[in-house]
Write a structure and sequence with these properties.
CATH class of the largest domain: Alpha Beta
CATH superfamily of the largest domain: TPP-binding domain
Distance between the termini: 10 Å
Number of strands: 9
Order of helices and strands: EHHHHHEHEEEEHEEEH
Number of domains: 2
Radius of gyration: 18 Å
CATH architecture of the largest domain: 3-Layer(aba) Sandwich
Strand order of the largest sheet: 3-2-1-7-8-9
Bound molecules: adenosine-5-diphosphoribose
């Protein structure tokens, strides 16, 4: 029998137990930094060093972090399901846990991007310094989608969710669009689950498993494995 397809929509909460700050929890990144000073094209134009420093700091945190039991449970699910992860996260912890199909809609902090050609460059753990230029002579930027910019791969994400047998939303407040609109795309007969610590409103049709992803995801994957 064909393997069921599982699409995972993940956010910062899946990496919280790896020590990476989320955005909107108490003490999160947006409690300590202003989005408008570090996460918009205007901010980069106005004060590129402040923006570069913000992402250099976060990149070093990512490099120090290790995948947790939640990332590992999702990677292990590939034994029984065709799994695609569509993540808002710019860390590479899903890949480092072993997930083979990962789509980063908000970019990947381990890469730099030319703001002229869009070409990507693997930073190999290095910071981006003021004065580091792309081949076209412009200041290199982090390969991270800023507020006010288009996100990557949204059409592909909609198609994947609309075709999925199982849709799993993990560790996201579902407050940022258009990513959050993906919860409206599952088929009526898809099995839909939400794993997160806290949420303002559970999307219609989703089975809510409240708690830490490192606890709730392995439990849920064990349940689903019986139905594979
Ligand atoms: N286990 C499960 N869920 C958790 C955990 C945990 N250990 N810790 C926190 N959470 C949940 C929180 O309850 C919250 O619902 O993860 C979610 C984190 O929400 P946000 O901080 O808003 O992060 P996210 O939803 O990924 O933000 C989306 O906003 O700022 C932009 O581009 C940025 O990609 C980011 C986007």
């Amino acid at each position: 029998m064909a393997r069921k397809s599982m699409v995972v929509l993940s956010g910062a909460g899946v990496s919280a137990e790896s020590g990476l700050a989320t955005f909107r929890d108490n003490g999160g990144l947006w409690d300590n930094y202003s989005v408008y000073e570090v996460a918009t094209p205007e901010a980069f134009h106005k004060n590129p060093k402040l923006v570069l420093d913000f992402y250099n700091f976060r990149r070093q945190e990512v490099l120090k972090a290790l995948p947790n039991l939640a990332h590992q449970a999702l990677a292990a699910a590939e034994e029984d399901f065709d799994v695609t992860i569509v993540t808002q996260n710019v860390d590479d912890l899903h890949e480092r846990a072993g997930s083979s199909q990962v789509i980063h809609v908000h970019g990947l902090i381990t890469q730099a991007r030319s703001s002229v050609s869009g070409e990507l460059f693997d930073l190999k753990g290095q910071d981006i310094q003021l004065g580091d230029q792309c081949p076209e002579g412009a200041q290199l930027r982090p390969h991270v989608v800023w507020f006010g910019e288009y996100i990557n791969h949204m059409d592909e994400a909609v198609e994947l969710v609309a075709a999925a047998d199982i849709v799993l939303v993990v560790g996201t407040s579902l407050t940022v669009y258009p990513f959050a609109s993906l919860v409206d795309c599952p088929r009526p007969d898809a099995q839909c689950y939400l794993v997160t610590q806290d949420i303002d409103a559970v999307p219609s049709g989703f089975d809510y498993r409240q708690g830490p992803a490192s606890v709730e995801l392995p439990k849920l994957m064990h349940e689903l494995k019986q139905l594979a």
